[in-house]
Automatic annotation (TrEMBL):
Domain of life of the source: Bacteria
Lineage of the species this protein comes from: Bacteria, Pseudomonadati, Pseudomonadota, Gammaproteobacteria, Alteromonadales
Annotated ranges, domain TGS: 396-457
Protein source organism: Pseudidiomarina aestuarii
UniProt cross-references to SMART domains, sorted A to Z: RelA_SpoT (SM00954)
The protein's name in its UniProt record: GTP pyrophosphokinase
Amino acid sequence: MVLVRSTHVDKPQQHGNWLAAVPASARAEAIKAHSEWLSSHCKNRPDLLLKGQEMVEILGTLNLDHDSLVAALFEPALEAGVIQLEVVEQQTSGPIIQLIQAVQQMQTISELQHFQHGKPNTAQIDNVRRMLLAMVADVRAVLIKLAERVCFLREVKSLDEETRVLAAKECQEIYAPLANRLGIGQLKWELEDLSFRYLNPETYKAIAQQLHERRVDRETYIQDFVQQVQARLLDEGVEADIYGRPKHIYSIWRKMQKKHLGFDQLYDIRAVRIITRSLKDCYAALGVVHSLFRHIASEFDDYIATPKANGYQSIHTVVAGPAGKHIEIQIRTQAMHDDAELGVAAHWLYKEGSSAGKGHGFEEKIAWLRKLLAWQEDMAENDELVAEIRSQVFEDRVYVFTPKGEVIDLPAGATPLDFAYYIHSQVGNRCIGAKVDGRIVPFTYQLQNGEKIEILTQKSAQPRRDWLNTSLGYLNTARARSKVQTYFKKLDRDKNIAAGKESLEAELAKINVPVGHAEQVLERFNMQHLDDLLAAIGAGDVRLHQVVNQLRPQSSASASAERLERLTARAKPAAKSGKAGKQSDVTVEGIGNLLVQFAKCCQPLPGEPIMGFVTQGRGVSVHRADCEQLEHILEQHPERGLAVRWSARESGNYRVDLTIDANDRTGLLHDITSILAHEKAAVVQLDSQLDSLSQQARIALALIVDSNEALTRIFGRLHQVKGVHRVDRTKQ
């Protein structure tokens, strides 16, 4: 293994050697001054000063700016509590302090290792979210933390075994994947090799010994190979640097495990790198190598044409070199090489005096965020320890951008209106449309990680009351709903009463209940007058569906049961159940000769979890296990619940109702019905509605399908139709 860079300081008394080795420049003089000051404050802990200086050297190879180097210098002493941030603030500038705080925020990553003893609490989850936002805001914080971990692994060899193993495990599972995602090869390799050394000491030692024993022969062989290729490159007019490259023990071990090979069977123990001056010379060099030696076709990869996920580009080929020995060759340009070694640092260079993290292009921030999101997937693959925090931090949140590149953290499922109200109440109130990555989207569109959101406003615009209808999906955050409710509260009470009455009348008309019957439920909502309830509905303080559910006809327990029984009527003929007979789709466990009907309210399909309910005189009604109607009635009659299961014969015709929301366009219905015809799903009913203001179409379908698997295929294909953004089973 090759270290990132040998430090100039190994012992406390060598502080002077380090200062003398710093190249002369205005920036270097400032670093020296800070180092001298820190030395005077770390007299009892010179190791902290040395660690800071070592971090400065590592980050110097990554071309980081002055602020980053100063922040790295102070970081170990600050983390150990030897000096306080307030004291450092007097010696440095505001941007450096902000960068130090971002680095400190990354300490939260270590908490991931402790969640194995229990679920993370809200404070821990919030800490990790803040860490993520800090990382998005300034990638330099990540680079400083990676350098600190490299230094820690270098020094941990002198500590006890438990500490070594814990540190190595953390770096292998979290920091090495992060360095890989950022494309920083020189940090990734050292983190991996040192971690492997402490976690698998015997294997590490065995591979290292084999590399050492054959080093002289290998270097002589590579030197002869390089001379031969270099001569031919010159003859062909291809200007390039060619040299042997170091091998990393962890990568050797990984390849041995992956390909089930012994050490002697590996192709890339002998390895050469060719650095060309241009892209076309990469392929010219490849042609030269393949003309000289027979290449192994199965070992060829063109990562220039198809870069890796972290942006890595290079041509990899393996040839049978002199004496038939296999040798691996990497061919790339200097820019590609810099990318491979420096990764994200090669693109996020800071000009002296610029604001940290403020000058980056939006596309760079998008790419950076996506690398972070990919990194959290890597973490979960390595260890189940982080599964809980991963789901709560990443899967329950979306991280999107404003047009200016500011990162906004919202709950998963948030819509453009949620985003607008997060920015400001007036932005939400005046919102007339939204663009996501430059394209117009409906208000019900659910935002995805890394998208740029632009809100379109108009001074005369105002919120719509149906935004508060949760079933329509306009608002999915409590914050946004609260702001809309506040807006309507401020309207004239009479307007709220009128609006509430209009909304309630419309919903109650569907169940043939006069609005005056709402007086029966006033006490449930702690109100004395019907107008108070109507005003509360109009203002959004009381959810419409809460009132409607209270006013459904025959709301007693027995009446509810009868209502549920009526919902079992279905196009498919009832079949008797008991033992799974030829005509039976469902088996009622433990009971024979019962009439079985399928509930219309939830329309269960073969393959879905189901539950039975014993009706009065109509046999057993079969529901989906997650049916809300069933849940409600079982609260009143738990003794009438019955375990049922699908029998071996599950084929047949089953009705299912769907609702599709989509952007209206020419050919939309044709595309949808073509898919249904291809899937052999019979359409028995179709109805469509168009909102002319938002140009949103809502299509209601009744289909006949033969199984849940068929419906799943239909769902998948409908979601792929241009403009479709929601497909749901309709609740009766």
